[in-house]
Amino acid sequence: MEIRHEDLVGTFEQKKKLVSQFTLFDDIFFSVVMQDKDTAEYVTRLCTGIPDLKLINSNIQQALRNLIGKSSTLDFIGEDSTGKVFNIEVQNVGDKAHFGPMRSRFHQSIIDASLVPKGEKDYDKLPDVYVIFITPFNPLKEYGREKVVYTSKTYIDGIEWNRKVHEIYLNAEVKDGSELSEMLQYFKTADPNDDRFGPLSNSVRKYKYVDEEVDYMCRAVEEYAMERERIAVEKANEESAKKTAEEIARKSVRFVDSLLKNGFPLEEALEMAEIDEETYNSHRIA
């Protein structure tokens, strides 16, 4: 669901109605729901197939926020009692055109960057990292694949090259009747009246029904929307500044050209136009 700033202006009941429409494929709702330890543990166990997985409290999320400068990059990240790190990302239908292996590479890179202390040379100390994507669409449908779960490993000349990175791709388009598949179907509805999924159902119901928690959810969404708006404004300003710089460069090139036609040496013309030769050559029209 696209969250617009105008949607957040109104009465509490209007905001509550907005929250009631969220599914677990809305990353902000998923992130808030996963703040509950029991819920995060339940979802991570099903996603990984590790039934005895125990998540512990950690400062990894905060460390990543400090590193990358924004909190909206990772939907969920946690650490288990053995030191394994789990990153779960939900993708909506709008992400389909841009979804691919490079997303996994990006998420893995920022996790590794936060876990390796500066100057550390012993890379064997890197923990196992699980990068998990959950999508409403089947990412390999065009290749004739029809599975709920896809995994990826690295091989060198047919030999598995264990980088301790586990990539798992889960989708809610394919159904196979498994408990995991049923949970992925629930991601599409986030029905607060569906109590089949234990702590996950409890968290969804809490954030959609309990006024205090709905209020917290509304504030989280508002902060999210404001952050998105800030990023959009920054991007627009950067593009505007770049366009202005390009236009100034082109005008300077035209000025240099006119000076050259009037017999000025190139070096002197560049100095008068206050640009260097590289800028001149890259912007002049042949």
Structural notes for this entry:
The chain is α/β, with parallel strands linked by helices and 286 residues long. It folds into two domains: 5-209; 243-283, no CATH class. It is 49% helix and 12% strand. The strands form two sheets. Strands 1-2-3-4-8-5 form a six-stranded mixed β-sheet. The chain has a two-stranded antiparallel sheet with strand order 6-7. The chain is extended. The chain starts with 11 loop residues before the first helix and ends with a helix.
* Unreliable parts: 65-72
Q: Span from first to last CA?
A: 48 Å
Quantity of strands, as a count: 8
Mean pLDDT: 82
Radius of gyration: 25 Å
Spell the H/E element sequence: HHHEHEEHEEEEEHHHHH
- The side-by-side strand order for the widest beta sheet comes to 1-2-3-4-8-5
Q: Which range does the strand content fall in?
A: 5-15%
Shape: extended
Number of helices: 10
Structural class computed from helices and strand pairing? alpha/beta
Q: How does the major sheet shape up?
A: 6 strands, mixed
Q: State the helical fraction.
A: 40-55%
How many structural domains can be distinguished in the coordinates? Answer: 2
